[in-house]
Amino acid sequence: MYSLAIIAEAVVNGLMTGAAYALVALGLTLVYGVLHIVNFAHGALLTCAMFAVLGMEQLLGIGPYAAILPLALLFYGLGYGLQRFVIGPSSHGEDRNTLLVTLGLSIILENALLAAFRSDTRSLGGEMGFDVVELGPMLLSRPRLVGCAVALLVAALLWLLLARTDTGRAIRAVAKERFGAQLSGIDPRHIFAVTFGIGCACLAVAACLLLPTFYVNPRVGNAFVLVAFTIVVLGGMGSVTGALLGGLIVGVVESLGGLLLGESLGQLGIFLIFILVLLFRPTGLFGARA
Amino acid sequence: MSTSRLTITRRTALRAGALLPTLAMPGLLRAQPAAVKIGILQPLTGALAQDGDLGRLGATLAAEAINGAGGIQALGGAKVELVVADARSNPEAAVQEVEKLQAEGVVAIVGGFASPICLAASQAAARYDLPYIVDVGVSDQITARGLRNTFRFAPGFGMVTGTALENLVRLNDDAGKPCKTVVLVHEDGLFGSGLARLLQAELPKRGFEVLETIAHPTPARDMSNVALRIRSLRPDLVIPSSYYGEFVLLARTMRQQRIRPKGIYAVLNGAASNYRFVKEFPDAAEAVMDCNHWHDPRSEEAKALKAKVDADGRLWAYNVPLNYSCVKLVADAVGRAGAADRNKVIEALATSDFSGHILPYGPTKFVNGQNQGAAPVNTQVQGGDIKVIFPDAFADAKPVFPVQG
């Protein structure tokens, strides 16, 4: 059996990993909640964002934290354009078309990255990834602590945006009743694109926070997206609070499962949660009734 | 649509006709023998794309070298032409590509990289008596099926692990036996689990105590827990068998958690002898040892090739010299056979004593398709470079062991 100190450290590690998961899941849940589509391109877009962070550092000398704001804006624009001019028009209002378009988009993006950057696994070099904060007997990774804090901040901002601003109200209106929103003078196409843009901006922030301790190759996004889907289901589709709490729960379950059952079996916990939630609370922890 | 611009006047036709003989002239002056087609089968897309790309690089460089030196002499200077096929990182796709290469009329296929791809592709090639040269695939099953078309120039799993254990014991004995306890970390696929099982059985016989065996999935998003367990167990030695991304994460996390075992001794590791890892994280990589494929550091041809690859800004990994040597092996066999005839090439390979490679091997001799001269080496990261520490005949550095924590 492990000592209490080690278990405590595993829990903290899980929380920090979970915060990163939550950030990836936030974008996914928002897009699902409003557009009612499962965005298969989410992983490929995360990979794009991670390469963008790497490019900022290596070509322009802008570190990952300084890159958060410009990249979030850039990816907001990218996401807006993608939805407004590619995904929206090509889906002709049918959900199953959207599904295929995003799937196709993910294949194009992944292979474009493969062609452009080859399949090497790259990381941000330097000492930054090795910084630790000593907390009693625990050695906590500084970049992951920063990541955790920023993820919480982003979730709070997103919640404020949805709850308190006109744009947020419009997003919620379109999500609930598209036709009614249209009658009140809201342009759903614009709101869809804004939502998709916000989802992509979340990915850009996640990429900036992940890269100091993680690596990037053209397929890396897939590692996070499956978990993100689980989190979205656990938290409730479209719920910001749900995605945040879901992410943290999955992070801790994975971490403790890994410690007690071994890293391979520990992954079981995630899927066990997935099945249990689907069985007993299909709307998720914070999901509205369908 | 107008077609007038496409109309060819009589005059133009005449002019074109007058030019034709000049185009065909070199062919008339010196009868150019038909190019010898060699199939290069690599996982260029999918999970193994990094390795596939490196393999293709090695093969391309070999073709350039052979053609630059005047082609295959025994065939009147016939040029080598590579036909590249993408195995898409799965055996089914590899089999389809073998069919394509067969239709293209290649004289042999080189590559595969992963054992499952090599197993399936060589079997498919066997139906056409098409020689198949495995570049990396270490599974011992590959050469145990009695396929007469399948050859492996590099060492297999049994050879590598045997040497790895032997050299580990020697390393430890020479240093006064500082290491007694070991933690094994391995990826949970066929390769990592098989290796871990073998080491678990063999290490205790050689005086090591295995404290724990930790499996992890690929891709792993986080290695903190593995590092935590290693920290609580305090082993003298850590033996990791993982692919690139996971090993880099582990090495970084171990360093961050200030875990300093007396040695990290990898076997067939995806990163421990990888220059990108060494360049990006010199501190985490320093003193890491690996028992793996590598080029002969004393060969002038290998040094020149590495310098060329470095100058092009490309990554140098073992896939490059292995594929380089395998393509040269095929070209040599075609020369020995005296014709681009598959059956004759198979016979030439089976009796080949080819020595034009750049690998740290003994004399080439194929028994049941396995090159008996093949051998792995032990490498160690020293001062930001990858050095060979064993065997003595090829070493270009002394081992640093135990590592001062």
TrEMBL record, chain A:
BP-aspect Gene Ontology terms: amino acid transport
Keyword hit for Glycosyltransferase: no
Membrane topology term: Multi-pass membrane protein
Compartments where located: Cell membrane
An example Gene Ontology CC term for this record: plasma membrane
Location, primary (coarse class): membrane
Transmembrane segments: 20-47, 59-78, 98-117, 145-162, 191-211, 223-253, 259-280
One Pfam family of this chain: BPD_transp_2
Domain of life: Bacteria
Record keywords: Amino-acid transport, Cell membrane, Membrane, Transmembrane, Transmembrane helix, Transport
Keyword hit for Cytoplasm: no
Record-linked PANTHER family: AMINO ACID ABC TRANSPORTER PERMEASE PROTEIN (PTHR11795:SF445), BRANCHED-CHAIN AMINO ACID TRANSPORT SYSTEM PERMEASE PROTEIN LIVH (PTHR11795)
Family per record: Belongs to the binding-protein-dependent transport system permease family. LivHM subfamily.
Protein's name in the database: Branched-chain amino acid ABC transporter permease
Automatic annotation (TrEMBL), chain B:
Domain Leucine-binding protein as annotated: residue spans: 36-376
One GO BP annotation of this record: amino acid transport
Domain of life: Bacteria
Signal peptide start-end: 1-31
This protein's record includes keyword Membrane: no
Entry-linked PANTHER family: ABC TRANSPORTER SUBSTRATE-BINDING PROTEIN, LEUCINE-SPECIFIC-BINDING PROTEIN
Higher taxonomy: Bacteria, Pseudomonadati, Pseudomonadota, Alphaproteobacteria, Acetobacterales
InterPro entries, A to Z: BCAA_transport, Leu-bd, Peripla_BP_I, TAT_signal
Family as reported in the entry's similarity comment: Belongs to the leucine-binding protein family.
Record Pfam families: Peripla_BP_6
Entry keyword set: Amino-acid transport, Signal, Transport
Protein name per UniProt: ABC transporter substrate-binding protein
